[in-house]
Amino acid sequence: MAIRAAGTYVSKSKGSRKSKKKESSISKDRFYNLATNYFPQKFHGQTSHPKLKAKQDIDQFLMGRTFFVNQADLDSKESVYTNSPRNFHFKVNDISGNNCNSVFNGMTATKEKITSMIRKNHTLIEVNTTITLKDQSIFRVFVNAVTKKTSTSLRHYAKTSETKKIRAVIEEIIKSNCDGLEVSKLVSLLSTESLAREMEKKCESIYPINALIHKVKPIKNVACIIKSVVKDTAVENSA
């Protein structure tokens, strides 16, 4: 018989205990594709949600989710080493199978692009104006304009009267080009530099500037509102 010291414990089981592997919570999730219809690339990653019971509706958990994608990834697959100064924002408004279809929900310029424009001893002119699209959606467009070098002097400031004229010209260009457009046409217009180049061209006679549309913010996105109302009425009718 083995003798042991008082207070010691002898394990009854021999050998090492087998620890159970913990199953990660994400392994139980169901994944859905994030899809858009404005650019050549239709799918832009995935979103997940835990599996639900048979009678539960998954749409209410996925509707309204937002995400943004860089324009380089939207245009082509060969964009691993390229980058665009614009990020387009989207909002999920429809679920079909495993696809989360989304609509345009704004645009922002990258931080690097915005900060690279701002310079010392130059005038920064900030402009924002509201536009109404064909489907009565309302967006607010923000523009940054920075004065260019006009001489060999160190300071390149615009007068107050000149900044007022530049603001008026920029607002007029945005209104004339964007008011009453369809959402798809607005997205294609924002994906190019045509508006910024037009602003620079028309402001050349007042004071040379570099212009950038750095943000488009949704005020009233009708596509999301209509879809949510239709969904709510369908749920009420089924109940």
TrEMBL record:
GO terms for molecular function: structural constituent of ribosome. Residues 1-26 are annotated as: Disordered. It comes from the Eukaryota. Keywords: Cytoplasm, Ribonucleoprotein, Ribosomal protein. GO terms for biological process: translation. One of its GO terms (cellular component) is ribosome. This is RS3A.
